[in-house]
Design brief:
Order of helices and strands: EHEHEHEH
Distance between the termini: 22 Å
Number of helices: 4
Strand order of the largest sheet: 1-2-3-4
Helix content: 25-40%
Largest sheet: 4 strands, parallel
Radius of gyration: 14 Å
């Protein structure tokens, strides 16, 4: 298990090559769709939407879209995604509810 900050997608291959199988990273800073194509099923992603532009000042719908983007790319029903969200001082109960509702909403599963 490894934790990195910032935009680190260029080193994902190196990390998997040395045996890292779970990575805590700032997913909204990266192209999660491209990462999913390369590493889904080989690497467990731990991250959330707490660094997305919608947080914490976005409206609840922006928060849902940010969460859904990460989930559609990385959540394929067989593990591989650990959700995380950091609540800042400006977060409201509406922000919290929108994030949790979208993280827990059923997704149509796509092929692994």
């Amino acid at each position: 298990f490894f934790r990195c900050g910032g935009q680190i997608s260029d080193v994902f291959s190196d990390l998997t090559r040395i045996g890292i199988d779970a990575l805590h990273a700032q997913l909204p800073l990266m192209n999660v769709e491209r990462l999913a194509k390369r590493f889904r099923g080989r690497l467990t992603f731990w991250g959330g939407v707490d660094h997305a532009p919608a947080m914490p000042c976005g409206d609840p719908e922006e928060i849902r879209r940010a969460v859904l983007r990460v989930r559609r790319a990385l959540d394929f029903g067989l593990g591989g995604l650990i959700a995380q969200y950091r609540w800042d001082k400006g977060s409201t109960i509406e922000h919290v509810a929108a994030a949790f509702e979208q993280w827990s909403a059923p997704l149509p599963m796509h092929a692994a």
